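Entry 14. Structure prediction run on the chain below.
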Amino acid sequence: MPDESVFEGLNTTYPVLEYPADNPNNAAAASLGERLFFDPILSVDSSISCGSCHKPELGFATNDRVTPGVGGVLGKRNSPSLLNVGFQPYFMREGGVPSLEMQVLVPLGDATEMAHNVVDAVRRLNRNTGYRNEFLTVYGDTASAFLLVRALANFERTLVDFDAPFDHFIQGDATALSNEAIKGGKLFYGKAACVQCHSGVLLTDFGFANNGTAIVDSTDYGRELLTNESSDRYVFKVPSLRKVQITAPYMHDGSVSTLADVVEQYNTGGTNHSYTDSRIEPLGLSVSEKAQLVAFLEAL
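Output returned:
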């Protein structure tokens, strides 16, 4: 049975993955989606794929601060991990996309990413005999925008990962975490109060906050771009901390290089600007406590 007693405040309930009625769980569709995910055919010049920014070996994230799109053009934001993306209630850093299927269209059409028109992308797929036949086999029809986004979303919903040392520990394996990591976990759920935003086994409450990261690019207004509310300026969706050890660099803009730097930023109460969430305040962690917290984060 899951053990909630060690980390006070941890809800150990694992979510159930739900598929939309118009895109049910389909292994053949997921296989097609996986092929599309790693194929640069979807970018306007066939130079990059979804997998260029979301690498499996990096937790389906990237080690670039900002990954270049077609022609080497840079956007403004770091590519987040796609692990457990099927459990998210909305998408993009400002939370403005309501479904995984709709999210697929964003990087496809973004000038700083794949820079392609979905209609033209579908035409290209149908000119490719292999893809045309595979769509016919899976869906009984040739490629269309409707089927393209569903195949990709079906694959992305397979990216479920609950196999970290953290999971084994809360499921009853007392040896899964080191003593340092256990002490760090108690800080995470206690003195450091990380659980205020990074809660549950998904390690996020999917809320929106400004965590005190330095404002390097003043034109990326975060959630305000969606809501037009000044109170949402420089506010971004709280990310999951799953596989955080291998998804550096960190923050929405990739501006923080290491987990130790992340912990230090929180320990000092952010970078001292007026947009910082009221929950972000100096933590008073000692050198050993900061190392313990890093050890726990590495076990996620």
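Residues 145-156 form the longest helix (12 residues).
Filed with the rest of this week's runs.
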